[in-house]
Automatic annotation (TrEMBL):
The protein, known as: Thioesterase superfamily protein
Pfam annotation, one family: 4HBT_2
Similarity comment: family membership: Belongs to the 4-hydroxybenzoyl-CoA thioesterase family.
Keyword line: Hydrolase
Domain of life: Bacteria
Biological source species: Candidatus Brocadia sinica JPN1
CDD domains xrefs: 4HBT (cd00586)
Family annotation (PANTHER family): 4-HYDROXYBENZOYL-COA THIOESTERASE FAMILY MEMBER, NOVEL THIOESTERASE SUPERFAMILY DOMAIN AND SAPOSIN A-TYPE DOMAIN CONTAINING PROTEIN (0610012H03RIK)
């Protein structure tokens, strides 16, 4: 299992009135992790779109373990947990760099679609990249 990590610093605008990261922002962090995971494989979303392959999120889940605050440095870990005929599932963990506290964990499932936004089997070259 290949785990890809990126870091981000919590910006003030990402916090709520209580001074903690607003819960919806964790899905943005998951997206950041997925995007960089694919880029690290040599497959940025822009290249997929040129080939008219699209990956919309069909399901996402986030379990909150501990709050994150303004100026915390977060480590976003992403890996592929499941690869099926026409879907791929990414798992995510967000950890606070200072104390290695688990902030959230979750997953996002994406479907493989063609230019007409119809489900298609995962192209072989993607399967190979995802399975390495």
């Amino acid at each position: 299992m290949k785990i890809h990590e990126i870091k981000t610093r919590v910006r003030y605008q990402e916090t709520d009135q209580m001074g903690i990261v607003y819960y919806g922002n964790f899905f943005t962090y998951f997206e950041m992790g997925r995007t960089e995971y694919l880029r690290n494989l040599g497959l940025p979303y822009s290249e997929l779109e040129k080939e008219q392959i699209y990956f919309p999120v069909t399901e996402a889940h986030c379990r909150f373990r501990s709050p994150a605050h303004y100026d915390d440095i977060l480590i976003i870990q992403t890996w592929i947990s499941e690869l099926k005929h026409a879907t791929v599932e990414f798992n995510h963990k967000v950890i606070c760099e200072g104390d290695n506290k688990l902030i959230v964990e979750g997953f996002s499932r994406l479907a493989c679609l063609n230019a007409n936004r119809k489900p298609i089997p995962m192209p072989e070259k993607l399967k190979r990249l995802f399975q390495e």
